[in-house]
């Protein structure tokens, strides 16, 4: 049996890793997992139950119940849930439970594209391809701002920028599994790149890795 082909995509908030990962999964016939939704699901469960986000024991219980097939992106994709997820994700015991589930997902044939903050460093350190997708905070805030307006919402660019900078700091400075490029990761700074250009650059990297594996 052929070993699963795994693509690990990491990067800060609103860097475009989800957009890129979905396209890569379609292009290469792989499954896709947005691991941020796992942390969002735990945060959402605590909020719904009226529990504090620093209740590690309850967060672990919620993490055990996480079912990737049952995510509702509309409920989980709000700004408030994202902020809460970054607070919940600092708990090492929560991470252990979710990482185990994410790893099992990645290892099912024919493989998968996983995006998040610790995919290349912790979840799948032996991934066939590791990408670190980034862009300046100002560019990311501009993209997120336009996205919210496009979907009919309201938001201030300055507030989004402040949120992105706060989230970057929390994700990069936490003790357990901080966000950083994994060893061997290819850096994709998309500040000056269109979605299509980023996709083509990533495909060139993946094609090289597939040729080397076959
Ligand atoms: N290279 C690009 N050029 C312009 N816009 C982009 C680019 N990549 C992504 N976008 C847009 O930026 C926004 C954020 O992208 P996306 O949701 O993929 O980021 P993300 O890193 O997955 O975010 P999060 O961490 O919040 O899950 C989306 O509106 C997307 O369409
Ligand atoms: N592998 C991951 C994925 C996400 N997180 C945390 O969840 C927050 C929300 O993630 P989004 O990608 O949906 O924005 C994020 O800020 C991280 O704190 C994580 O720790 N590890």
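Sequence proposed for the structure above (214 residues):
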């Amino acid at each position: 049996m052929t070993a699963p082909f795994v693509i690990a995509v990491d990067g800060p908030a609103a860097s475009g890793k989800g957009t890129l990962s979905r396209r890569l999964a379609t292009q290469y016939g792989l499954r896709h997992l947005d691991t941020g939704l796992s942390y969002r699901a735990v945060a959402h469960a605590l909020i719904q139950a009226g529990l504090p986000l620093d209740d590690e024991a309850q967060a672990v219980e919620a993490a055990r119940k996480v079912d990737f097939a049952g995510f509702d992106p509309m409920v989980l994709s709000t700004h408030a849930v994202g902020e809460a997820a970054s607070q919940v994700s600092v708990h090492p015991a929560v991470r252990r439970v979710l990482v185990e589930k994410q790893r099992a997902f990645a290892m099912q044939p024919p493989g998968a594209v996983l995006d998040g903050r610790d995919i290349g460093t912790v979840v799948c350190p032996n991934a066939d391809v590791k990408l670190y997708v980034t862009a300046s905070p100002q560019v990311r805030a501009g993209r997120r701002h336009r996205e919210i307006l496009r979907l009919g919402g309201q938001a201030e660019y300055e507030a989004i920028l402040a949120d992105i900078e706060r989230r970057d700091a929390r994700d990069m400075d936490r003790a357990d599994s901080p966000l950083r490029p994994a060893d061997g990761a290819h850096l994709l700074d998309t500040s000056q790149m269109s979605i299509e250009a980023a996709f083509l650059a990533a495909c060139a990297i993946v094609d090289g890795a597939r040729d080397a594996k076959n």
